[in-house]
Design a protein that fits this description.
CATH topology: TATA-Binding Protein
Order of helices and strands: EHEEEEH
Oligomer: single chain
Helix content: 25-40%
Organism: Clostridium beijerinckii
CATH architecture: 2-Layer Sandwich
Largest sheet: 5 strands, antiparallel
Number of strands: 5
Protein name: SRPBCC domain-containing protein
Number of helices: 2
Length: 104
């Protein structure tokens, strides 16, 4: 297993409707385990072999994962693709030049 930490350009101050859409997207992603103590989890019921969690941080929506690199890369790309379609703006990592969306 490898450990992965990635931030996405979904700002903590995003309006409630964005978080509602994200909650729906979370449930559609492979390995969805549900909210455990308020934290979204994927693969949490998979005997501890792999896990993904998400948290809302000042730096953006942060994912922590323990899984093989190839599987993580596919999962994250699927999240970005589906998130972009769901939220209506391109989802990516701020360090790769993706800016936070303005809601004004």
């Amino acid at each position: 297993m490898e450990i992965h930490n990635h931030n996405l350009n979904i700002h903590y101050s995003s309006p409630d409707y964005i978080w509602d859409k994200l909650a729906e997207l979370y449930s559609e992603m492979p390995g969805w385990s549900g909210f455990i103590d308020g934290i979204p989890h994927w693969y949490a019921q998979d005997n501890g072999k792999r896990i993904i969690t998400a948290s809302v941080e000042p730096s953006g929506l942060q994912f922590y994962a323990e899984m093989q690199q190839e599987e993580w890369d596919k999962w994250l790309e699927l999240f970005k693709m589906n998130g972009s379609a769901t939220l209506g703006f391109e989802i990516g990592e701020p360090e790769d030049g993706f800016e936070f969306h303005s809601y004004s």
